[in-house]
Amino acid sequence: MSETLGPEPPAPAPQAPATNGRSRALVITAGVLIALFFGLTTFSGFYTDRMWYRSGGFGSVFSTMLWTRVALFAVFGLVMAVVVAVNVMVAYRLRPMFVGMPDANGMGRYRDAISPIRRWVVLGIAAVLAVFSGTSGAGAWRTYLLWRNGSDFGTEDAQFGRDIGFFVFDLPWLHFMVDFAMAVFVVSLLAAALTHYLYGGISLQTPGDRMSGAAQAQLSLLLGLFVLAKGADYWLDRFDLVSQAGGLITGITYTDDNAVLPAKNILLGISIICAVLFFLNVWRRTWMLPSVGIALLALSAILLGVIWPGIVQQFQVNPSEPNRERDYIARNIEATRAAYDLTDVEVEQYTPDATLGSSLAQLDGETKSIPLVDPQVVRPAFEQTQQVRSYYSVADVLDVDRYDIDGTERALVLGVRELNPAGVPDQNWSNLATVYTHGNGIIAAYANQRDRTDSEQIDTEADSGEDVGIEWAQGTQSSEQDLQDATGGFEQQVYYGEQSPTYSVVGKAEEGDEDIELNLPTVGSEDDSTLTTFTGDGDAPVGSVFNKLMFAIKFGEPNFLLSDRVNSGSKVLYDRNPSQRVEKAAPWLTVDSDPYPAVVDGRILWIVDGYTVTDRYPGSERESFDEMTDDALATETTGLQTLPTDEINYMRNAVKATVDAYTGQVTLYEWDTEDPILKAWQGAFPGTVEPREEISDELLDHLRYPEDLFKVQRYQFARYHVTDPGDWYQSNDRWEVPEDPDVSGTFQPPYRVFVDNPLVAGNDEKFALTSVYVPYKKNNLASFVSVNSDAASDEYGDMSVLQLPNEQTPGPALVANQFSSDQDVADALAQFNRSGARVLRGNLLTLPVNDGLMYVQPVYALRELSDASFPILRYVLTKYGDNIGLGTTLRDSLEDLIRSSGITPDTSGTGGGKGDKGDQGGQTDPEAPSGPVSEQIDDLLAQAEAAFEAADKAFADGDLGAYQDSVKEAQDLIGQALELSSAGSGSSAGEGAGDGSTDAPSDSPTEDSSGG
Q1: What residues contact residue 882 under an 8 Å CB cut-off, 6+ apart?
Q2: Of 38, 210, 279, 517, which is the most exposed, with the fewest CB atoms less than 10 Å away?
Q3: What is the pTM of this model?
């Protein structure tokens, strides 16, 4: 059958399964959606930022940054893409017409695969390179703008005789250009070599010539250009030596001047010779000379750039380093003092004479401004007694400012009552975004301790059971409105602050619509809360559907599209931290870590200090900004937005900025009118910085010397107060900032106080930022430093240093140990361990008083048995000379200080003390004792002892009202005893009063510090 019909036809080949069209569509759809998601996310950030800048009046900043980045991206991206693409095309056109057979390098199959899509491959590679190169170029927008707008500093460096502006403005941009050129030549070289290899121009497997003449010419040209660019890099590296950190100093050293710098010049010359050899190789077609040149360059880089400087350092410098480096150390000292604005610091020799007299009135007058309310310790007291609602809070570390209260300039500890989203009762989007939108008002307390005769406030506090040893200047009671009265009232609502939510949606569609934002009622109102609506400009309107979509994408919140609370009149408030807003409005500034509030012209303003910094100042010492500003109160930082690292060697307080706590409006004011870096940025962003003359007098009164600048200056001055190079090298007189006695491993923070210069007769107290130095690795006091912090004064910024004789005055660590080891202090503080409380030590202050230096430290008690407890000022410790004082107020401590020196204090003319305050608070007079004076004193002290024991029991039970009553009764009794003692009723009576005043504080809980 088969033979008849013939062979059977072959079986049909199995058919491949049809491509699943649905799967392909799903993949394409998923890819499109992913691309759309990332595109919309990027665009939403761009679009909302544009609205933010325009609404705040900084649209020009946004447009300048945008178009500068776009231009740099386009230029550097196109240059890289075009140069590489042209070299690939040239390599392709110069390929050999015939490739030897068989295909020696096995590239034939790759050529066949690429040929149909060759142009697309070249375009794709060029596009990828353009993106990477353009991104790098756009990232250098700050460097470009400084180069474009920079000017001279007016000072030349000591090594090259060039203006400092060249190193700060020009050199970074020149480095970027040269590095970019080297990258272009290297990438082009690799791309051309790969193309030649692919198309047979380079054949490593064949004998004879392994490279065509065309390939050799093109690669020689590219290599010559690269080596020439490397020569330019060597030339620029010479100038980098003046700001390069070394082991001894920053800047040129003996080895740099006599070994590294000549080596750079020689390498520059060799690079030029090598480049010429490569260019000649385009015609000579031999790799011998270029190879020798490259080998010589590499060998010279090792011998001259590494080995020779090491030999010079080891055998010429190290054996006599002080003599070799003397001139270079002198340059470093001069440059460092100039770069950190330390040239005019005045150092005066000061020999303290801590001699106590008997006049308590004089000593009390000298110390009346000493602050006892520690901004870090009393925060819980501010919150527990004045925050009013659980959804309000204050900053972790409070601020200090001064105000004219009743004709007297007083230092106040301030805390803005900000919104705390964690305390909102119902954590839903409507509440968090539209109802709980803002904080309310300022809490203020007097920083220093005053014995007041105003019983109204004290009675109110005692009756409410909220007396915490603080005299309030602005709180929740009608009697606590000193700040409001002094400033004439101010806008209370706080929409922008250090703890504000990420964003809030405010505003309403129609004027007649109901208010929904929760507000704190005014003082005296019977309502628990009121409602309000934000009426400021806001950061961005959100009414349109497109804007709603943009913000929904930006914040990942669909309620922007779904909630009816987002209406046509809605605005979005975001980027609400004052520091963040200033950094965004002025992206060329480094801002201070501590913005502070002030009441100015009826508004709460956040004041932010802005710095211009660089790491390119010739010869100035480079240090980590974080390290120089670190102390016990420092917050975590995230580096500098203007520099690649956190190292700087130049700093100026160029700008004072304000942020309105209600509207969020950022205003930048020129401060350092001579700063060349500020002038460069003003050229780049014209009109964004207001002239210094625009600062109002009221705002000027609240500007102060910035903390971070002072910390940086005191860090550098610790070593650079020495101007003799030999002494500087030996470090014989090197200082350091002392370690905080209560926070191990951190510097003691500076403090703002009213001080006077004891060396200037009739000198008035100045509001100053102060600190102390101790000798390097020692604990005695070396000097006291202060800087005038009153911006309205002609002496603002003047830094004064009182240098003490060596080994005579104890430093903070030694004084803290002496306080702890003093028996009276130990006995007084031991009671806290027995009553479930722990001791919190406040600022250990060092201040010039009379002709000596006085240490003052407040001591607080915190009951740990309750989550609602807060620190209460219990004692004040003082040290003057060799004497230590202990009391429940500063005045009591001063009395004890005088008495401990063997002198009976003269309390006449003091104008009232704790005995005078004893009848305040509605207390009944104790039974008047009778009999001889000594017996009367003993009887009074016995009654006081019983009253203190009752106060201890009330404090342990948490009954603050009874505790306060007992304390005031004891104070009254002790006051009467002191009056009898000071009346001169006999030596035995005097001794009895002295003993009573010493023992009583040891057993007594505390008293109302009335302003401490």
Answers
A1: 354
A2: 38
A3: 0.84
pLDDT at 257 over 60: yes
pLDDT at position 233, please?
97
Phi, psi of 709 (to 5 degrees): -65, -45
Residues ≥6 apart with Cβ < 8 Å to 483: 403, 405, 412, 442, 444, 473, 474, 599
Task: Identify the DSSP state of 117.
Answer: G
Which residue is listed with tokens 């106040």? Answer: 412
Long-range CB contacts (within 8 A, 24+) of 307-315: 308/259, 308/263, 309/255, 309/256, 309/259, 309/260, 309/263, 311/259, 312/254, 312/255, 312/258, 312/259, 313/255, 313/259
Mapped onto helix, strand or coil, the DSSP state of residue 10 is coil
Q: Report residue 458: phi and psi, to 5°.
A: -65, -40
Rounded distance between C-alpha atoms, residue 121 and residue 191, angstroms? 12
Max alpha carbon distance in the chain (Å)?
156
DSSP assignment string, 636-675:
P----TTSSSSEESEEEEEEEEEEETTT--EEEEE--TT-
Q: Is the pLDDT of residue 818 over 50?
A: yes
Look at 65-69, 342-346, 681-685 and tell me which has the smallest mean pLDDT.
Answer: 342-346
The helix, strand and coil proportions of the chain, stated in percent and rounded to the nearest 5, come to 45, 15, 35
Residues 6 or more apart in contact with residue 503 via CB below 8 angstroms: 433, 555, 572, 573, 574, 576
Torsion sign, CA atoms 99, 103, 107, 111: positive
Q: Is residue 14 predicted with pLDDT exceeding 60?
A: no
Beta bridge partners of 739: 747
Which tokens sit at 169? 């403005």
Q: How many CA atoms does the CB half-sphere of 919 hold within 13 Å?
A: 6
Contact yes or no for 153/676 (Cβ under 8 A): yes
pLDDT of residue 980: 62
Query: Taking a C-beta distance cutoff of 8 angstroms, is the pair 92, 183 a contact?
Result: no
pLDDT tens figures, 618-663: 999 999 999 999 988 877 665 688 888 899 999 999 999 999 999 9
Q: How many CB atoms lie within 10 A of CB 208?
A: 5
Evaluate if residue 910 carries a pLDDT over 90. no
Contact 49, 581 (CB under 8 A): no
Residues present in the chain in total? 1012
Tokens standing for 416? 């803005």
| Rounded percentage of the chain residues whose pLDDT exceeds 90 | 50
The domain ranges of the chain are: 68-322, 387-537, 580-703, 904-1012
**Separation of alpha carbons 396 and 93, rounded Å:** 70
CB 197 within 8 A of CB 105: yes
In sequence order, which residues have a C-beta less than 8 Å from that of residue 744 and are 6 or more positions away?
none
Read off the tokens for 679.
Answer: 């002038």
Q: Which residues are within 8 A (CB) of 453 and not within 5 positions of it... i.e. 6 or more apart?
A: 912, 916, 917
Q: Count Cβ atoms below 10 Å from residue 522 Cβ, excluding itself.
A: 11
Count of Cβ atoms closer than 10 Å to residue 9 Cβ: 6
